[in-house]
Each structure stands twice: as C-alpha cells, then as structure tokens.
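Here is an idea for our session: we take a single protein and study its fold together. Which protein we use is up to you, so please pick one and set it down. Once you have written the record down, we can walk along the chain together:
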Amino acid sequence: MTRIAGCTIPLFSLRTRRSWGIGQISDLVPTAAWLKTGGMRLLQILPPYELSDGETSPYGARTAFGLDPVYIDLDAVEDLGPGGAESVLDDGERRELERLRASPRVDYDAVRVLKRGVLQKAFRNFYEREWREDSPRAFELRAFIAREAAWEDDLALYVTLREAYGSLGWEHWPDMEASAHEPKALDQRKKEHAERVLEHQYGQWLAHQQWQKAREGLAALGVELMGDLPFIVGHESADVWGHMIQFRNDVTLGAPPDAFSPEGQNWNLPVYDWEVMDDDHLAWIVARTRHAARLYDRFRLDHVVGYFRMYVTPVRRDKNENERANEGEAATTTEGDGAREKGFFYPDGETAQRARGHRLLKTMVDAAEPARIIAEDLGIIPDFVREVLEELDIPGYRVIPWERDYVRHVYRTPNQFPRRSVASWSTHDTAPISSWWRELQGWEREGLSQLAGIELGAGDDERWIGLMSTLLHARSDLTLVLGSEVVGDGLRINTPGLVSPENWTYRLPMAVEDLERDPGIQRRMEALRAMAKSSGRTE
C-alpha cells in the first residue's frame, strides 16, 4: 500500500458557499482539492446512508445501501429548470436557506424540510415531463431501478410504508406479517403507493448519479475516497424488514461486561444469523460489500471484532408489549419481571470465532476488489482477531494516545507501527488531539511530548507542528487527521454515550472557498504539505 496522508471529515460537515446547511455530494471535489494543497491524497467520510426523520447518527441508518437524499446537490438537478433550485423557493424559504447556510451546526430537521420540498417539486416536473413521455431520462431511471432492484425495491417500499403507517414499527404494520413474506401482497402495496415509491427511487437515482460524478472528479484530482461501513443496521431498517430471516429475533446485540459496565451493554440492535446467511453463501454481506466498493476506493469496517463474535442477550417479551408498540417502540426487551438475562458470545469459543471471522472477512476482501478494506480494531480485541487481519492483509488502527504499555505507562513509537496500519491522533469518537491534550493526565502529556520531541510547555502552534509531524512520519502506510485539527477549531464530531445537540452536527467553520484564502489555515496547509513530502506521503 502506497504511503499516503488523509483527512477525516464527515459528509454532513463539508461546507461550500453553495451548500444548503449540510454538506452535499458535489462538495466532495472542492474539499478534496483543498486538502490536496496540504499534501493529503485521501478524504475519509462517515457513513452517508439514508437516515430516518429525527435521526442524526450516521450509524443509525435505515438502509445499508441507499444514500441519504439530504446530500443531493439541488442546483445540479435539471428538473428544476434553468433558474436552479433557489428559483423555486418563496421569500420565507430563501430566508431559511440563508439561516441554514450561516448556521454553525447542522440543523437536520430544517434542512430536510427545505430540501425535501424542493426535491418534491423536481420529481413532479420529472414525472410530468419525462416519465409520462417515456423520455431518454425516464429510460435511465428505469435502468437504475432494474440494476439496483436487489436493495432499492425494499428500501423504496419500506420508506413509503413507514410514511403511510406513521411511527409504528414494521412488525406492527397492518397485515405486514403476511406481506413481508408474500410477493403478491408486496406487489399490491407497490401498486397502491406506486408514485411515492417512484419518487424515492428518483431521489436515489439522483444521489447515485451525483456520487459517480464526484468519484470521477476525485479520481481526476488523484484523491481517494474512503468510506465507513457500520457493522449492523437497526431493527427499523429496510434490510431487516426485507431480509428478516437472516437476522435472529431471539437475541439482541450489545457489548460484554467491562470495568465501565459490569453487566455488559444491550444496544437493542439486530444480530446476524450466520447459519442462515451461510446457506446462500453470505449473499447479503457480499452485496453490501460490492455496493460499498462502488462508492469508495477503500472503506473502514466498523466494530470488526463483531465479524468474529457478537455479544448477545436473549430477548424477553415485555408485559406491556402492546402499549409499547402503540407508541412506536420496539416490542422486545431484555428486562422482564425485574430479571435480566445473561449475555453470551455468538459463536462460542475461540476456534469457532476465528473461523467465522476469517470466512467473513475473506469473503468481503474478495467482494470488495478493487477497493480495499480497513479494520476498526480499537478497544478490547482478542489476539486471534489481529492474527486473522494480518493473514488477510487488512490494516488495523493505531490511535497514538492509546498505543502504550498500560503497566509501565510507556508509549509505543509511531515509527515502529506496522506498515500495514492506519495511524491517527484521534477519531470521530474522540476529541481532536489539540483539545484532548488538555484532558490528558500530566504523565500522558509528558510521554506524548517526549514522543513528539517537543517541550512539555510548548505553545499551541509549536505543539501542533510536533504532533502532526510525528503522525505523518509514522511507519503506517496511511495516516489520518481530523478536519477540525486542520482548521484548528478543536471541536468534536461525537461524544459516545452522550445525547447532545452537538453530536453529529459539526460543520467546518467556513466554506472551503474561504478556507483556501484564510492566512492562518494556509500556513497550516503549507506545513502539512512539507511534512507529507518529507515523510514520503506526497510528490
């Protein structure tokens, strides 16, 4: 793997003067061009998959395939006419657009309302002028629907029925127990909601067209796009609804006991039924991987240990199940009559876990070609997991503040990291190192200062130079720095375990056109480019 430097910025955080309060697909290219001035040849984003209304976490998508229409560049939608997207807004909507553009945080609800209204107008124009006339563009949409039918049929109908049935979970939709298994019943519902289903397919078609154009723009720049594949989808998702037989309904996913949670954690997420998936040669896993390989040059497998073993808790039915269902909540819980079920690993035993992980990851590596896979192997990871990753030539992560001997409090030297690895100072789930630094204990700051060759009391600028240089000169083939580190605002993307309006709403502090002209940020980019060149990460 070629030595390369990259930057992590969620798609929702990108910002240009044209975007509508949230990053959009077309913003990928100018952002990559800006990053390249700093010697970075890779842009990593977080999952861009479609979220339900009210959801903000990119790891809570209702699909493992469909892109979120909120990222569509409306100005590039030709069905809005020569005046463009803003021409269809009324005065109040124009004022709202200006507010959203100026907002320091992503206001998901407001952005969705505004962009959805414009997309609906675009679809009406397309339907009347193109679809009814069976035009060449209508033919293109039909081709997309046919090509992506394996996932888009389920997603379009699932979204449509969720809208029709309100907050009820799919298990409680009228006659859904039958229709989810009976093609005739599904076909009837498609006919009943044909236009709304088509509208969703239209949105996905636009998003994927724009994505392909952005990929071509990135390739022309020589900048790779790295994505992120969540380990699992939620119960209320098109994938579990459409492929329910491939998910277990007797257990839920969580985390084993540790010092922070002595009884373990129950995330109330679905659990893959590996035995059932084996029967069709992991077809869903293969399809998901191949789709990701079309979106990205390489992508990160979140929670890679889950492909080896899942910590699961048996489901117990709640006495108030009907009442909970009426409120739109999940109808299952691990609590019942004051008792708690004991969790366990699935599969059980190291031999079975090693075999399971090896088979799954080998299948995914093969399906991903020519894209490359990276493993998120942070946290408590059994030795055999990293042994399998090495066997399959899959890089893992090295987050420098966590790379230490916890007995002797000695940090591992980055220039001794494995070549096949990804080095970083921080991730989207930690504070950027510039602000994390203030939270570290004294001995930690002292050790990291020695590692970076800087004085313990160094000023912010001197420390930043030392820390970034240490990172880029790591032995790891890929290094990643957070976008917030590049622009120097020190803000977090997410704080795990905390429900906060600041989670998943981070935006770059200014449009990329302005970042390119900011003297302070220009100096940082020049410094990064010099480091990238001296460490062999750029020309």
In short: Residues 194-221 form the longest helix (28 residues).
